[in-house]
Design a protein that fits this description.
Layout lengths: L8 E6 L4 H11 L3 E5 L7 H14 L2 E6 L10 H7 L8 H18 L3 E4 L11 H19 L3 E5 L5 H11 L4 E5 L1 H7 L4 H8 L3 E6 L1 E3 L10 E3 L8 H10 L6 E3 L6 H21 L2
Parallel strand pairs: 1-2, 1-10, 2-3, 3-4, 4-5, 5-6, 6-7, 7-10
Antiparallel strand pairs: 8-9
Helix pairs in contact: 2-4, 4-5, 6-8, 7-8, 8-9
Bound molecules: magnesium ion.
Length: 281
């Protein structure tokens, strides 16, 4: 059997109405893996069978499926605080239900796991809010564990210390981290490489994304920029992942659309390919 490639490249993509096109684009880029954003409107068994076949035929492995929820907005950091993930109480139950549907779909696809933007975890670790969110997350992890799926939390909204505390409080072996170094900068939640050193043993997947700090971190968004042009230090990011024994995919995320997105992703592929060559000798 061929040995599994170490740190295979991937791109973050979306399936749904534009499945054909986006899969074509992925094939053209020549990357062996993708993470996909879960389509809310197509989670049937037939859809799963079709998606599974299409990706298998294309020779592209889906490594993770991201949950998204109705009513989320990323307009400002404050609006994220109010609307994103499992944190807002008003929508928590319906979103847990949606998360279970995504998990069922992921299990039908036979992929390793799902990922969630959980929202702003309270920095007050003794609070009722923190304890309730821990309980809700345990439930999601247990549901996924029965389906043999991991649950990866996207980084960015909280500090590494709070994330670490939260992971330990939930205490489920299938709970891990999707480390997005740029998010730490965009949200102003801490220096990403320092954060990676703290939570590195929990990292199961990554977003290769770059960003520059805003003048008012935590209040105004930082700016996402092409990989290698921001404040992350991608070479050092990869070096630390390797130190932690990380072998999973390097999934490029570029949150713009159109021609420029494709160009930037190709540039990112070149950058990561050369860095892998240098660091994995
Ligand atoms: Mg991300």
């Amino acid at each position: 059997m061929a040995q599994k490639e170490i740190m295979p490249l991937g791109v973050f993509t979306s399936i749904g109405a534009g499945l054909g096109a986006s899969l074509e684009a992925v094939k053209e880029m020549g990357v062996p893996t993708v993470q996909v954003h879960a389509p809310a409107e197509m989670l049937t068994e037939e859809d799963a069978a079709r998606v599974k076949k299409q990706f298998a035929q294309a020779g592209v492995e889906i490594t993770l499926m991201f949950c998204g929820y109705y009513g989320e907005s990323y307009k400002t950091i404050q609006i994220v605080r109010e609307t994103v993930g499992l944190v807002p109480l008003a929508t928590r139950d319906e979103r847990i239900k949606m998360t279970r549907q995504v998990a069922d779909f992921a299990a039908l696809l036979g992929i390793p796991g799902i990922a969630v933007h959980i929202g702003f975890v309270s920095e007050d670790h003794a609070s009722h809010e923190f304890a309730e969110l821990v309980g809700a997350t345990k439930g999601v992890c247990d549901y996924c564990s029965a389906l043999n799926l991991c649950v990866n939390l996207e980084t960015g909204q909280e500090t590494a210390d709070t994330l670490l505390h939260f992971l330990k409080a939930v205490n489920r072996p299938n709970l891990g981290v999707n480390f997005d170094p740029a998010n730490m900068i965009l949200y102003g939640s801490g220096e990403p490489l320092e954060a990676l050193r703290k939570v590195g043993s929990y990292v199961r997947s990554t977003h290769c994304k770059d960003g520059v700090w805003s003048d008012e971190p935590g209040v105004e968004w930082g700016k996402e920029v092409p990989l290698g042009e921001g404040d992350v230090n991608i070479e050092e990011f990869l070096r630390i992942l390797i130190e932690f024994g990380y072998t999973g995919p390097l999934t490029i995320e570029r949150e713009i659309k159109g021609e420029q997105q494709a160009k930037d992703i190709k540039m990112a592929i070149n950058l990561l390919t050369s860095l892998k060559k240098k660091l994995l000798r």
